[in-house]
Amino acid sequence: MASSDTHGAVRVDPGNEGALAAWDGPDGAYWARYADHFDRSVTPHTEALMGAAAIATGERVLDVGCGSGQTTRRAAQAATGGSAVGIDLSREMLAVARSRAIAEGLTNVEFVQGDAQVHPFEPGAFDVVISRTGAMFFADPVAAFGNIGRGMADGGRLALLVWQGAERNEWIASFLGAVAAGRDLPTPPPGAPGPFS
To answer: Which residues are 170's β-sheet partners?
Structure first.
């Protein structure tokens, strides 16, 4: 069951209300303000994602958790005869995305504020679904990917850029080791939304 809250008509799964408050609030505002910095910091990974997605002219693309829209705009540029739709919870990040799409002269791109876990995607509407670190925030990944899957055409493709497990990230192990100072730190429950979900 979906609900809406003080953020307007944004329909979210009740488990994602905290994410809406953060991303359509201070977290989203921060990421929108520093969009260029964040986009530059993941450039090599973005290239790998776009290569894996192999978007062709005429394809219809959905970008889940599109943020400030860099990957959605890249998808629209690749799918010149098709279209790209970016969905995200953050109004401020979507405003950056729309502004940049206009500045780039893109006419085959759209940005939607919504929760991909419950958004009423048109069945079979997308040939390709991409997400650059946006698929880690769902309260119920099974429900979310089921909903996204219903929006995909038969034979559609999914390309996700995700974090490796925490144990495979040397920098997080070093950071946590320094913070722990020999103590055991609490860990999120398995399956909880976050970078290592």
So the answer is: none
pLDDT digits (tens, 9 = 90+) for 110-160: 999 999 999 999 999 999 999 999 988 899 999 999 999 999 999 999 999
Residue 101: partners with Cβ closer than 8 Å, 6 or more residues away = 69, 72, 73, 76, 109, 111
| pTM of the model as a whole | 0.85
Quick one: angle between helices 91-103 and 70-78, nearest 10?
40
In percent, the amount of the chain with pLDDT more than 70 equals 83
Q: Are 112 and 86 in contact (CB under 8 A)?
A: yes
HEC states along 45-86?
Answer: HHHHHHHHHCCCCCCEEEEECCCCCHHHHHHHHHCCCCEEEE
The two three-digit tokens of residue 122, written as one number: 């048109």
Instruction: Say which residues have a Cβ less than 8 Å from residue 147's Cβ, sequence separation at least 6.
Output: 116, 117, 118, 119, 121
